[in-house]
Amino acid sequence: MKGAENLAVVSNEIDAVIVHISTDYVFDGEGDRPYVEEDNTNPQSVYGKTKLDSERVVIQKNPKHFILRTAWLYGDGRNFVGTMLELAKRMDSLKVVDDQIGNPTSAKQVAIAIIKLIETDEYGLYHGTCDGECSWYDFAKRIFEINNIDIEVEPCTTDEFPLRAKRPKYSVLDNKNFRERLGYKFAKWQDAIEEYFQERK
To answer: Is the pTM of this model over 0.85?
Structure first.
C-alpha cells in the first residue's frame, strides 16, 4: 500500500495522472451476478485487503486517478495459460477447478483499455476484464482445444486444491463504467485467447 501512496502523492505534486491496477479479490465472491464498480467490497484475503487499501489511498492522494480492477490475467510471464501448457507436456490428464468463475483477460486487452482511459479525463474506478465468464476448467479446456493438445481434463472442486489465500468463487466483473462513460467494450474472452495464441506463433 505504501508504494501506491507514494506514487499517488508524487504524481499529484507534478499534476500527473495515475493509473492504478487492482483486482477482483476486493470482493468476497459470494454474489450471484457480475460485480459493478459501485458494489460493496469485502476482501477475504490479505492480498485483497491490501489492494483495496491501495485503491482508497490513491483516491485520497490524487484526484486525477484511474483505478482499473482486472482479473484472471494472462500474457508474458507466469500465469494460468503458461502453467496449463507446461503441465500438458508431461502429463496425460489434469484436474482443474470448476467451482471458481471469473473473466479470463489478456494483458493486451488491458493495455488497450488503459490507453482508452488516459486519452480522457473521465477519472475514477473501472472494471476491466474480457467479456463473458467461465470456470478455470472451461478455460483450460479452451486452451487445449485451440492448441490441439490431446489431454484429459477432469473438473474438481476448490476444496480438492486448498491454497493459502482464499480465492473468491464468483468474481465476475461487469465493465459498466467503460460502457457507460467511454462507450467501450472489451473483446470476448474466447476471442482474446485465440488472438493471444495467434500472435505467439
So the answer is: yes
